[in-house]
Design a protein that fits this description.
2 domains; five-stranded antiparallel β-sheet; 10 helices
């Protein structure tokens, strides 16, 4: 599966806001985006008086969401289709599916300093889901599920030296103790991220749903 391996700062510049993709560095004075947020090129820092189209706003918001959760275009499109066909309101359904991804839960619970790091840990088999090895980042968790670091992995240098270096406000639908995460309930509307405009994303994809 192809995945972007270039500069994460460039992704933030593409959408015009800091997506905090670089873990602890994104929150430090050394953060590249904070030092130079403008796009590259001679006109990158200049003012633009051109009117931004609605389509451009929708595309930018969709890209910001995709970059934040580390998804391919196909993955995000398929997630939207699931949300669109579900009984719940589409915006809630989309963000609920994204938040319930295993890699995101690991990050939200404070067992990784970025979603990219969480995804790598899952890929390398560091976690058990309800006692069974889970190595697929896109797996969805449900209420009453239990995620824990695999005992054999817990002795690795990574976990013995691990320190959370990014701000982390414990999500109400998650409960964490040491290296164990319990899913209290599925996320409610109040638990979902507020930094995105779901209307733009729904408008972008609604024309593409078959």
């Amino acid at each position: 599966m192809s995945r972007f391996i270039g500069s994460k700062t460039k992704l933030s510049k593409r959408v015009g806001r800091n997506l905090f993709l670089k873990g602890a560095r994104s929150f430090s004075a050394k953060d590249d985006y904070s030092k130079k947020p403008q796009k590259p090129g001679v006109h990158g820092g200049g003012k633009s008086f051109a009117k931004i189209s609605e389509y451009s706003k929708q595309l930018t918001e969709k890209q910001a969401l995709r970059f934040t959760y580390g998804l391919t275009e196909k993955q995000l499109a398929n997630t939207f289709k699931k949300a669109f066909k579900a009984k719940d309101e589409t915006g809630y359904g989309l963000f609920s599916l994204l938040e319930r991804r295993l890699d995101n839960v690991v990050y939200r619970a404070g067992l990784a300093n970025s979603r990219a790091q969480a995804r790598q840990l899952v890929n390398h088999g560091h976690f058990l889901l309800n006692g069974i090895r889970a190595s697929i980042p896109s797996m969805l968790v449900s209420a009453a599920d239990k995620i824990e670091v695999k005992p054999s992995k817990a002795k690795n240098a990574f976990w013995t030296n691990f320190q959370l270096e990014v701000p982390n406000e414990q999500s109400a639908w998650l409960s964490k103790k040491d290296k164990t995460i319990n899913i209290v309930n599925e996320p409610t509307a109040d638990d979902l991220p507020k930094e995105f405009n779901p209307g733009y994303i729904i408008e972008y994809y609604s024309r593409r749903v078959n």
